[in-house]
Amino acid sequence: MSINGRICSAGVWDESVPGIEFDENGISNYAKLFQTLVSAYPRGEAGNQKWLNIVERIKAEGKNRPYDCVIGVSGGTDSSYLLHISKEYKLRPLAVNLDNGWNSDISVKNIKKMTNQLEIDLETYVIDYEEIKDLQRSYIFAGLPWIDAPTDLAIKAVLYKVAARERIKYILRGNDFRSEGSQPDEWTYGDGRQLTAVHKKYGRVRLNTFPNYTLSNLLYYGFIKKIKSIYPFYYLEYNKTKAQEFLSRNYGWEYYGGHHHENHFTKFAISYWLYEKFSVDKRKITLSAQILSKEITRESALIELQKKPYDAEFMNQMLDFVIKKLDFSSSQFQSLMEEKKHSFHDYPSYNFLFTKMLKIARPILDLVFIHKPQSIFQAEMRNKKL
C-alpha cells in the first residue's frame, strides 16, 4: 500500500507529504489549506457573479480585436471543457498548443475535434525536439523530482508570448484546485533560473527555440503588458467526471487514461519517475482534493492507493519508448534511477525571492496576479517566514 505513516482523517494526505501536520482530530494542514482556498474562491451565486464580471471585462478589453483571450490546450479534460465554456459565454479565444514531441495521438485528435467543432482558431508552437530532449535529459541527470518542469515553463512562456503579440490581456487556464489539490514545492517545483542552471551543467545542445519563462518575463508580461491569468473553474461549478462524459457525448472527445496522461512524458514523469525514484505518489494530493470536493469517497481513494499508479506491463513498454526517445541505454537509465536523489534546493532558483523577499515583492505580485498564487497560500500554511 502507498500510505506512509499517519494519514489525514479528512483525506489521504500522509506523512510522505512534505510539511504535513495534524491537529488533535487527525485533520492535516493540507485539508485546512483546501478549505482556505474554497473560502477564498467560492462557487455558487458569489462565484458565478465574479465570473460574469470577469467575462464582461474580457469582452470590453478585447473589443474590436480578433480575439479577447488565450486558452492553452492539451487535449485533456480541463482545457477541452474550458474551450466549451468560453464559447458558451460568447468569448473569442485563440487556442494555443505546445508541441514538445510527446503528445499522444488521442490528445492531438481531441484538440482538433474541439477547435474545429467550436470554430476556434488554433496555433501550435513546436519546440525543436533536440532542445526539449536535451532539457529532459538534463533534468534526469540532475536527479530532480519534477523532470517535466521544462514543458511547464515553456507553456507559460508561449501563452504570454502569443497574448502579447495579439494584444490580448487575458489567459484562461484550466487549473482546478478542487479536483487537483495543491502540490508541495518539493515534488513539483521548477523555474526559469533553475532550468538555465541545470542545462548549463548537464546540457549539450544550444537552446535556440526553447521559450524559457524567467522572472523578467513574469514582470514584463504581467506588470508592463498587464496580461492576467484567469482560472474560471475557481468560480464555476465543475466536475471532471461529468465534464468528460459531456465532452464525449457532445464532441466525440476521448479519455486518455489518467491525470495528465495526454502527454507521454508527463505520464512517465508522474507515474514512474516520481513514484519509483522518489517514492512520491501525487495521487495522494489529487484524490484528497476530490474527497473534500465530494467527487469520490475516502474509501475508494484508499483502495486506489493500494495499487501502483501504473500498469506494469504497459509501463514496461512505455519505459522502452521513453529510454529510446531520450537516447539513453537501458543500463544508463537504470544507473540514473539508482543515483542520488536531489531537491530543487540543490540548484539555483528564484525560490528565495518567494520566501525571503515576499513581503517586499508582494505589491508587485498583486499587480501581476489577479488570483493569489497557491504557492503563497501553501507557504503561509507551512509557516514559512515570509
Order of helices and strands: HHEHEHEHHEHHHHEHHHHHHHH
Give me the CATH architecture, please.
Answer: 3-Layer(aba) Sandwich
The chain-level mean pLDDT equals 92
Number of spatially distinct domains = 1
The H-level CATH homologous superfamily, spelled out, is HUPs
Provide the structure class: mainly alpha
Biggest pleated sheet: 5 strands, parallel
Say how many strands there are: 5
First CA to last CA: what distance? 37 Å
- What is the number of helical segments per DSSP (H or I, 4+ residues)? 18
Radius of gyration: 20 Å
The helix fraction, in percent, is 40-55%
CATH class: Alpha Beta
Explain what this protein looks like in three dimensions.
The protein has 386 residues and is mainly alpha-helical. It has one domain: Rossmann fold (3-Layer(aba) Sandwich). It is 52% helix and 6% strand. The protein is built from 18 helices and five strands. It has helices spanning 29-40, 44-61, 77-88, 105-118, 129-142, 149-165, 177-180, 185-188, 192-202, 215-224, 240-251, 264-278, 283-292, 298-304, 312-325, 330-338, 358-368, 374-381; strands at 69-72, 93-99, 122-126, 170-172, 228-230. A five-stranded parallel sheet has the order 3-2-1-4-5, sandwiched between helices. Helix 1 crosses helix 18 and helix 12 crosses helix 15. The longest helix has 18 residues, at 44-61. The chain is globular and about 60 Å long.
